[in-house]
């Protein structure tokens, strides 16, 4: 996702978490931090990162006029028929996605998830017949489409993708971009969203970014394996922690009060954080921030 970062997602119910080994060079899903303490391996899970991406609700998620099923009977009725598709090319339309899957059987629904009119790089395809859905997975999972390689799997019920899995990454080097971040984090699960905050005058990374994994377990795996650790892509250790939701209201207030930075505010999903880091830069750079910005990506 060298673009504003979204290109795949495994979600549940109408969104699921991808369960095959992650692909290193893809942008987006099944998936798998600037400052932050590393939680001891078997300790209580760190708090934070609880806001689902794109305004999704905790128990019931809406996208494209459809709601995720939260009852056991509803979930069972969809068992095996509803597929999540990750790494959808940004230019792909729902008609394109339908054309790709319809040869495998009659479709009940087909939806690409968008935020602010931009594709998030993943979607859902529901078949009438479970056998057709199974054949579609066999036929299309791992298929190259444009510059992506599709990940297709059964969507899992009763969960909001990305909930509690938003990470704040720091100590990134100036050359770091979203492709580099995907290389670093994709071995640990499906990436729903990634954003490196850039200085638009120099086109270099400000040293911080956000990564939203598909699940909290994947986010924990990232923290345990990467916090304060060196990675091949960078020359110094990175820091990773859960994004701090306690600061969410404050950071949203900052963006409302700061209207001059049009280069950042045009990227709606990230404008809260862009404004926060711009303010930090005015007083000495990102290192002046005490806590990770609230909510991270899409918080």
UniProtKB/TrEMBL annotation:
The entry's protein name is RRM domain-containing protein
Where is the organism placed in the taxonomic lineage, from the top?
Eukaryota, Amoebozoa, Discosea, Flabellinia, Dactylopodida
Specify the RRM domain's residue ranges. 81-157, 165-245
Q: Name one GO biological process term.
A: positive regulation of signal transduction
Q: Which InterPro entries match?
A: Hud_Sxl_RNA (IPR002343), Nucleotide-bd_a/b_plait_sf (IPR012677), RBD_domain_sf (IPR035979), RRM_dom (IPR000504)
Pull one GO CC term from this UniProt entry.
ribonucleoprotein complex
> What ranges does the record give for the region Disordered, renumbered to this chain?
1-77
Tell me which UniProt keywords the record has, alphabetically. Repeat, RNA-binding
One protein family per Pfam: RRM_1
| Listed Gene3D superfamilies | 3.30.70.330
Single GO MF annotation: mRNA binding
> What organism does this protein naturally occur in?
Paramoeba aestuarina
Q: Where is the composition biased (Low complexity)?
A: 19-37, 44-68
Q: Which SMART domains match?
A: RRM
UniProt feature, compositional bias: Acidic residues: 1-18
């Amino acid at each position: 996702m060298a673009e504003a970062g979204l290109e795949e997602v495994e979600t549940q119910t109408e969104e699921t978490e991808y369960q095959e080994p992650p692909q290193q060079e893809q942008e987006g899903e099944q998936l798998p931090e600037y400052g932050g303490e590393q939680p001891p391996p078997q300790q209580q899970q760190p708090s934070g990162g609880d806001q689902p991406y794109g305004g999704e609700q905790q128990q019931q998620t809406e996208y494209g006029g459809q709601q995720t099923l939260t009852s056991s009977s509803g979930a069972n009725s969809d068992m095996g028929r509803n597929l999540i598709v990750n790494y959808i090319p940004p230019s792909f339309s729902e008609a394109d996605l339908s054309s790709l899957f319809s040869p495998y059987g009659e479709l009940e629904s087909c939806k690409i998830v968008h935020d602010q009119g931009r594709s998030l790089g993943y979607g859902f395809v529901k078949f009438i017949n479970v056998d057709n859905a199974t054949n579609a997975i066999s036929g299309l999972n791992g298929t190259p489409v444009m510059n992506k390689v599709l990940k297709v799997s059964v969507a899992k019920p009763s969960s909001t993708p990305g909930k509690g899995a938003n990470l704040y990454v720091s100590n990134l080097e100036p050359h770091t971009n979203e492709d580099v971040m995907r290389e670093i984090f994709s071995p640990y699960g499906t990436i729903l969203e990634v954003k490196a905050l850039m200085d638009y005058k120099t086109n270099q990374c400000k040293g911080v970014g956000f990564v939203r994994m598909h699940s909290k377990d994947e986010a924990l795996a990232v923290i345990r394996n990467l916090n304060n650790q060196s990675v091949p892509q960078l020359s110094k250790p990175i820091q990773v922690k859960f994004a701090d939701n306690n600061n969410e209201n404050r950071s949203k207030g900052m963006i409302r009060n700061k209207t001059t930075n049009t280069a950042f505010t045009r990227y709606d999903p990230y404008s809260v954080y862009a404004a926060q880091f711009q303010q930090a830069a005015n007083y000495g750079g990102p290192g002046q921030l005490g806590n990770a910005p609230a909510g991270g990506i899409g918080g």
